[in-house]
Specification:
By secondary structure, the protein is of the alpha/beta class. The chain contains seven helices and six strands, in the order E-H-H-H-H-E-H-E-E-H-E-E-H. Strand 2, helix 5 and strand 3 form a beta-alpha-beta unit.
């Protein structure tokens, strides 16, 4: 790296925050999960053998009482972001929270996200809520959605896929298992 400041895009859910794990925990507490040990797809209600409506009731309840977005960040996430900032890079959190099926709850989700970041001291320079993450200009990006990785890659950003069961089909040269691996890759470039 030539010492220039980079704009580093980072997804929140299932990159910095164990969203799928938290959603699964709430589903277990609601009695929906049965024998399923973890969410492995974008359609967990099918894995659980319940209706989409039943699963959304659990998710909506977690939004309303703050439990869906209230858990701590993934261990090591804050340190990884601090390393990037210490190297002079800008951290741009880019999340689809509040879009898609979450649109009716966008204001609450955004507020809870800002509060979560402040409560845990998440270091960042910008925070954008959008389903179209490719519209945010970055030099590097990490995301767990295969569709986002493909779209962001087309912008010229060096994008890494956070290895998760729901993106295992994606043939991509830059795959990491933890945010610390991503930060190390950016810092060593």
């Amino acid at each position: 790296m030539d010492g220039s400041a980079l704009v580093v895009g980072v997804d929140i859910d299932d990159v910095l925050y164990d969203w799928s794990g938290r959603a699964h925990q709430l589903s277990v507490q609601a009695g929906l999960a049965g024998e399923v040990r973890a969410i492995t797809s974008w359609t967990p209600h099918r894995e659980y053998g319940c209706t989409a409506e039943q699963w959304w009731e659990v998710i909506e309840s977690g939004i309303h009482d703050g439990s869906l977005f209230g858990a701590p960040p993934i261990a090591g996430a804050i340190g990884a972001l601090q390393q990037l900032r210490a190297a002079g890079h800008q951290i741009h959190l880019v999340t689809a929270r509040g879009s898609g099926g979450f649109s009716p709850y966008a204001a609450a989700v955004r507020q809870q996200t800002h509060e979560w970041a402040a409560r845990h001291g998440i270091p960042y320079d910008d925070l954008t809520f959008t389903a179209d993450k490719a519209r945010v200009r970055t030099d590097y990006f990490v995301d767990d959605s295969a569709d986002n990785v493909v779209a962001i890659r087309q912008t010229g950003s060096r994008v890494y896929v956070m290895d998760r069961p729901w993106n295992s089909h994606l043939d991509h040269p830059h795959r990491v298992r933890h945010i610390t691996e991503f930060a190390a890759a950016v810092l060593s470039a």
